[in-house]
Amino acid sequence: MKLQLLDHIAIAARTLDEGSAPYLALGLTPEGADEHMAAQGAWIRAFRIGDTLIELLAPDSEDSTIAKFLEKKGPGLHHTAYRVENIEAAMGEMREAGAPLLNDAPQAGRAGSRVAFLHPKWGQGTLIELVEHGHGAQKHVPEQPDLRAGGIH
Ligand SMILES: C[C@H](C(=O)O)C(=O)SCCNC(=O)CCNC(=O)[C@H](O)C(C)(C)COP(=O)(O)OP(=O)(O)OC[C@H]1O[C@@H](n2cnc3c(N)ncnc32)[C@H](O)[C@@H]1OP(=O)(O)O
Ligand SMILES: [Co+2]
C-alpha cells in the first residue's frame, strides 16, 4: 500500500469556535462550511495548509464519541489521516496484515471522502484514519463549484 500524503490531523475541541482560536491566530482560515457528520457524532471545521488539513472535531451531543474522548483526555490530538488511492484495497491489505480495522466497510467522510479507522492502541496511542478522495478531488475541492464558470446556464 502506498500512502499518498498526510491528509489531515484532527484535533478534538469542546466547540469549533474554541478549537479554532489558535489556528485563526496562526493565520489560517476555515475552508468551506462546517460539516455535521451525525454518524461520527461530530461537527467538523477544516483549515488548509498546502495539501494537508487541520480538522477540528467538536461533539454534537453528550453521547458522541468525541464527547467521550474529551471527557477522558481533554482537548487534543484525536487522529492522523493518511490518503490512499483506493480505500477497499488499503483495507484489504490492512486486514491481511492483521491490523485492527474498526470498520468492515468504508464510512462516509468529510467532503465526500470515504474513510476507515485503525485502533489507537495499535497506532501507538494514535487513532489512524485511511482516506480516499474521489477522482479529481485530490487537491482543493470547492464546496460549491461555480457552475457559471463551466458555461452551464
Ligand atoms: C469522518 C471524519 C473525516 O475525517 O472525514 C472523521 O475523522 S470523524 C472522527 C470521529 N470518528 C471516529 O473516531 C471513529 C473511530 N473511532 C472509534 O471507533 C472509537 O472512538 C474508538 C474505537 C477509537 C474508541 O472507542 P471506545 O468505545 O473503545 O472508547 P474508549 O474510550 O473505551 O477507548 C478505548 C481506549 O482507546 C483510547 N482512545 C479512544 N479514542 C482515542 C483516540 N482518538 N486517540 C487515542 N486514544 C484513544 C481510550 O483512551 C482508551 O484507552 P485506555 O484503554 O487506555 O483507557
Ligand atoms: Co478525520
TrEMBL record:
Could you tell me the keywords of this UniProt record? Metal-binding
Coiled coil regions, renumbered to chain = none
Q: What is the top-level taxon of the source organism? A: Bacteria
Q: Which is a GO BP term held by this UniProt record?
A: L-methylmalonyl-CoA metabolic process
Q: Which Pfam families match?
A: Glyoxalase_4 (PF13669)
| SUPFAM superfamilies linked to this entry | Glyoxalase/Bleomycin resistance protein/Dihydroxybiphenyl dioxygenase
> Which GO terms fall under molecular function for this chain's record?
metal ion binding; methylmalonyl-CoA epimerase activity
Residues forming the VOC domain are 5-133
Q: Which family does it belong to?
A: Belongs to the methylmalonyl-CoA epimerase family.
Q: What is this protein called?
A: Methylmalonyl-CoA epimerase
